[in-house]
Structure formats: C-alpha cells, structure tokens
Write a structure and sequence with these properties.
Blueprint lengths: L24 H13 L1 H68 L5 H24 L5 H29 L4 H38 L5 H25 L5 H61 L6 H22 L7 H26 L3 H9 L6 H33 L3 H25 L3
Length: about 450
C-alpha cells in the first residue's frame, strides 16, 4: 500500500507552501556571520587594526619630531637673531645720538673719540638694520613697516647732525636748532620704533619656545597604545595557536617599543633643554636687555640736560625715573636665585650705576650754581670718575651679561634641536619594519586555514 504525503495547503490561495530557500537573504547573512566569526577573519581584522595603529602612531611621531626640530631651527636661524639685531639696533641708535649731543656740548671741533663713537654707532645701526630686515618673515608686515621707518629716517637724521656739526664748528647758533630737530627725531620716532621692533622679536622668541617646551605627550600616548595592542595580539595568537612565541609580532613590539623609548627620552631631553633656554636664557636676557635700554635712556636724558641747558627739570626727572627703574630691575635680577647666568655682570652693572648716580648729582649741582663748563666736563669728560666712564662701565657689563645669556639660550636651543635630529626618518623606518613584521607574524597563521 502506497502512502502519499500531501503538501500543506496555503489557507489563502490554496497552493502548496514552498520549502525554505537556503540561498535566500537570511542564509547569506548567516553565512557572512559565520565567515566573520571564523579565525581567518579575526586574524585579518586584527592585522588591520594593528596596521592602522602603526601608521597613525608612526606618522604622528615623525610629524611631531620634524615639527619640533623645525621650530628650534627656525628660532636659531631667524627669530632669535632678529630679536638680537633689534636690540643692537636700538643700542647703536641711542649711542649715536648720545655721541652727537656730547660732541655738541664739547663745542667747536668735538673730540676724536666722540666722533669715532658716533661714526661706529651709525655704521652698526645700518648693519643691524640689514640683519633685521633679512630675518623678517614675508608675512610680517608690522616688522617690515618699522624697519622701513628707520631706514627712511636714518639718512635724514645723519644729515641733520652733519648740518648741526658744521654750524657748531663755526660758532653759528643755528647748529643748536638742527641738533634739537635731529635728537627729537631720534627720541620720538626712531628709538620708539626700534624698541617696538625689539619687543616684537622678543615676543616671537618667547612664543616659539613656549610652543616647544612641553613633551610630545600625544605621540607618546599613541605609541603606548600601539605597543599595548601588539602585546595583546601576541598573547591572543599564542594562546590560539599554542605557540609560545610569534617572531614577527615580537620584532614589531621591539621596533615600536624602541621608537617609544627614543621619542620619550628625546622629547624629555629636548623639553628640558628648551625650559633651561627659557629660564637661564630668554628670561634673564629680556631683563638685561631692558636694563641696557634704560641705561641708554638715562644717558640720553643726561646729555640733553646739558645740550638744552634745561631749567625745567624735565630731563633731570627723566634721568631719575629711568635710573631708578634700572636699579629695581637689577635688584630683582640679582635676588632671583633661580638665575645662574649673568649675575656677575648684573652686580658690576649695579656698582657702575651707583657711581654714575653720584657723578650725575655733581653735574646737576654744577648746573644749579651756573657752572656750565664744570657740568659739561662732569657729564662728558674722559676722566675715570665722570659720567662717561661710569656709563661705559655700566653698558659694558650689561652687554657682557646679554652675551652670556644669549649664548645660554642658543646653546640649549641647539641641544634641543640636535636631540630630535634623525628621529623623524627613523620613526618612519621603524613603523615600516613593524608593519612588515606584523604581516610576517600573521601570514603563516592564515595559511594554516587554507
């Protein structure tokens, strides 16, 4: 007896229901799930994750190292020399004006050393102007405008001084008017612009250093994550394949770990050098530079006091103000125990400042009793106890301190740059080695499932 099995009837249409299609969408989804759950797929996914981490961390390390080194090199090549040139430019202009006024006070033909000092100062100012212009960035319109102002006014100033000098030699009173106009141009136009240029350069140095003082923590963090991921991958594959060591992954761990150690050490050493460049270089350099500017402003006030025979007390007040600010700054500098560089120079500058104040007091006393000749000798004479000698000792001491602190700044910046040398290309090379090693480590395991 034959038993016939009747297929179920669709209650709606009355036709038989078809069997489930194993090749339908549901079946394909289940197949993909099984594929992704398979060991080969997991190995491929793991390799992709490791490759992404290696590329990202290697690129970040190379970029950080290259950017930091470029920052230090730029500061050494252009930013710091520009600030130094601006400081020297201000100093040369101030010395030139003081020498010109001193020559006028002397009457007739000025002393040879005074004339030589004026000529040398003008030549130095012209040279530093060229250096400052060469160090400007193309986008620095403010700095370019300041340099253009000085370059335009300097020939006009020297022309007025020569006219004043010629009239003074012949005893023509109009020479005083030319000298006044020239000195007023220097004090109200040229020196303030030069000081702005120096302030701009000093700010650029500080901002550049601050940008490079912190260690590259982001790149170090990425490398730490990458090394941890490589170690975790090695442990998982060792357990899965029951093999203790995977040579490819071990090489990748070693290469990435070596880069991590190098970046960590180089970053810390570079940051430490940059911080020392700030604390023992840039900060004391700024104080000593400001002190030198104040000393030159004091000398200018002293010479103008005589040249214009001021009875209003304006120049005496200006001298007292700037010389007091100078003393406060030097006291603050020498009392700062953290500053190791330039303290001896600051001490010598303070001693010269005290002696200068005493000499200036004798000059003012001579003027008050109407003895202009004695006042002129006290202010501009060549004697070792007179104002000219005291100012020279003060300016020399501050100049030596500036040179010491500048060398400290540049030496540490050079050390910071040298520490990062070669790190960027090595980072790329080690990451390529790590990528190849990961492939070598995973490829044999994948072939076992073919």
């Amino acid at each position: 007896m034959t038993v016939r099995v009747t297929p179920p009837i669709d209650s709606v249409g009355g036709s038989a229901l078809p069997a489930e299609d194993s090749e339908g969408p549901g079946g394909r989804v289940d197949g993909l799930r099984e594929l992704f759950r398979s060991t080969p797929a997991k190995l491929i996914s793991l390799g992709l994750v490791l490759a992404v981490l290696l590329v990202v961390s290697g690129t970040a390390s190379a970029q950080v190292a290259s950017s930091r080194k470029a920052t230090h090199d730029r500061l050494l090549a252009t930013t710091e020399p520009l600030a130094n040139a601006a400081q020297n430019l201000y100093s040369a202009l101030s010395i030139a004006d003081a020498a010109a006024v001193t020559g006028f006070i002397s009457g007739g033909i000025e002393p040879v050393e005074v004339r030589d000092r004026y000529v040398e100062a003008i030549a130095e100012a012209s040279g530093e102007l060229v250096v400052a212009a060469a160090g400007l960035a193309e986008e620095d319109e403010f700095g370019a405008a300041n340099i253009a102002v000085i370059a335009r006014l300097l020939p006009m100033y020297t022309g007025l001084i020569e006219t004043a000098r010629a009239n003074n030699r012949t005893g023509n009173p109009v020479g005083a008017a030319y000298l006044t106009e020239a000195s007023n141009m220097m004090q109200t136009s040229m020196l303030p612009v030069a000081q702005e240029l120096h302030t701009q350069g000093e700010t650029a140095v500080n901002s550049t250093q601050r940008a490079a003082v912190a260690p590259p923590w982001s790149a170090i963090g990425l490398l730490l994550v990458t090394v941890a991921a490589l170690c975790a991958a090695h442990v998982l594959i060792s357990r899965k394949t029951r093999r203790t060591f995977n040579p490819g992954l071990i090489i990748a761990i070693g290469a990435t770990g070596a880069l991590l150690c190098w970046l960590l050490i180089a970053g810390l050493v570079s940051s430490n050098a940059t911080e020392r460049a700030i604390e023992q270089g840039a900060e004391p350099l700024a104080d000593l530079t400001e002190s030198r500017i104040l000393a030159q402003q004091s000398r200018t006030a002293e010479t103008l006091l005589l040249a214009r025979r001021d009875v209003t007390g304006m120049y005496t007040g200006a001298f007292d103000e700037t010389i007091t600010r100078l003393g406060d700054l030097l006291d603050q500098y020498t009392s700062n125990g953290a500053v190791e560089i330039g303290t001896d120079a600051a001490d010598r500058a303070e001693a010269a400042r005290t002696a200068w104040i005493n000499s200036h007091a004798r000059t003012v006393a001579a003027l008050e009793r109407g003895d202009y000749a004695a006042a002129a000798v006290l202010a501009t004479g060549p004697g070792p106890d007179e104002a000219t000698a005291q100012f020279a000792r003060l300016d020399t001491a501050l100049g030596e301190g500036i040179e010491e602190t500048r060398n400290e700044l540049r030496d540490n910046e050079f050390r910071a740059s040298r520490t990062l040398s070669g790190l960027a290309p090595v980072a790329i090379a080690l990451m390529v080695l790590s990528l190849i090693s990961v492939i070598i480590g995973l490829w044999p395991r994948l072939r076992e499932y073919q």
